[in-house]
Design a protein that fits this description.
Layout (H helix, E strand, L loop, with lengths): L8 E3 L16 E4 L6 E2 L6 E2 L10 H6 L1 E6 L2 E2 L3 E4 L2 E3 L1 H13 L2 E6 L5 H6 L5 E2 L7 H5 L12 E16 L16 E5 L3 H13 L5 E5 L2 H10 L5 E4 H10 L6 E18 L3 H17 L1 H8 L11 E2 L4
Parallel strand pairs: 5-9, 5-10, 12-13
Antiparallel strand pairs: 1-2, 2-9, 3-4, 6-7, 7-8, 10-15, 11-14, 11-15, 11-16
Helix pairs in contact: 2-8, 2-9
């Protein structure tokens, strides 16, 4: 499955960062088939006829680009196909670009470095199926210690989490409570790891063993090999993995969604102008129908939000 690549050029996927800057190790993609910026004849200032170009910070207007950090390993939300970053998030970004008149340049790296990349200014924004929650807004670690300035989120997608198990569900896993006494696999630094840790506390003496990996692909491999009974992921991602891996013969989604929350585009708390421009652009694409078309294309219509919000996650 490949997202539309019209007007797109290339070079060369809720989750949380504690330390370290993002390592740009994947594909870059420039999206944006709307009005492009050009230099004015007198001042050298770039201009655009896009409806919301004037709302952007001048630095981004002049650059003509919003640099976006992502972890392109969470199909259908964001993944690489033929060397290009594609999926729900890049397609939403492409729709946003038509309102803003600048391109969105995606750089793929490890998830646990994304939020730090905004702190340091390496990226202007992060968009990678990131669950908006108070911990991330306030820059706190799992124990409530301050580790950064936090980020603001423009919320654009609603999703719960689901368990991914081997096809046939040999361990009869239906809920998190069924995991007590067993071993699970998960991507390190994500809210899914937090969920498993909370469940481990709940399991008590009936120990839940958590194996954390750098990527979700590694966690999936662990489940596939039988070394763990389940992985945890956002419902659209888990459903996509179950449907597409080995033609649907390897995994299935167990039980129902839980912990429904919202995904957000993360920006620095110091960059309120970009945050507000993104919020206005999101409302615009919801209103004109282009947002809905993206979700329909990727079969995730049930995850639509009715309007853009800021820091709505709890």
């Amino acid at each position: 499955m490949t997202a539309s690549t019209t007007c797109r050029t290339t070079a060369a996927r809720s989750r949380f960062a504690a330390v370290g800057a993002i390592a740009v190790a994947g594909a870059l993609i420039l999206t944006g088939c709307g009005d492009q910026t050009d230099k004015g004849s007198d001042t050298g200032t770039k201009t655009s006829s896009a409806p919301l170009f004037s709302k952007l910070p001048k630095k981004i207007q002049d650059a003509g680009v919003i640099k976006v950090g992502t972890d392109a390993s969470y199909a259908p939300m964001e993944f690489t196909d033929g060397g290009k970053v594609t999926g729900v998030d890049p397609d939403i970004a492409e729709a946003l670009s038509k309102q803003l008149g600048v391109k969105f340049e995606f750089a793929s790296g490890t998830f646990d470095g994304l939020i730090t990349s905004v702190y340091t200014g390496r990226q202007d924004a992060i968009m990678s199926s990131i669950t908006d929650n108070k911990k991330r807004q306030d820059g706190l670690d799992d124990k409530g210690n301050k580790i950064g300035k936090g980020v603001d989120f423009v919320d654009y997608f609603s999703s719960g989490v689901s368990l991914l198990v081997k096809k046939g569900n040999p361990q009869a896993i239906k809920s998190l409570d069924d995991l007590c006494g067993k071993t699970v696999a998960v991507q390190r630094g994500t809210i899914y790891e937090d969920t498993f840790k909370a469940q481990a506390d709940k399991c008590g003496d009936k120990k839940l063993t958590i194996q954390a990996f750098d990527t979700d692909a590694e966690a999936q491999t662990r489940v596939k090999s039988g070394g763990a009974v389940a992985d945890l992921n956002d419902y659209p991602v888990a459903a996509y993995i179950a449907k597409t891996t080995d033609g649907g013969a390897t995994f299935e989604v167990a039980g129902s969604q839980s912990d429904v929350g919202v995904f957000g585009i993360g920006v620095s708390k110091d960059n309120t102008q970009l945050r507000d421009a993104l919020k206005e652009a999101l409302d615009a694409i919801i209103k004109d129908g282009s947002y809905g078309k993206v979700l329909e294309k990727w079969n995730v219509k049930e995850s639509a939000v009715k309007q853009a919000t800021v820091n709505a996650g709890q």
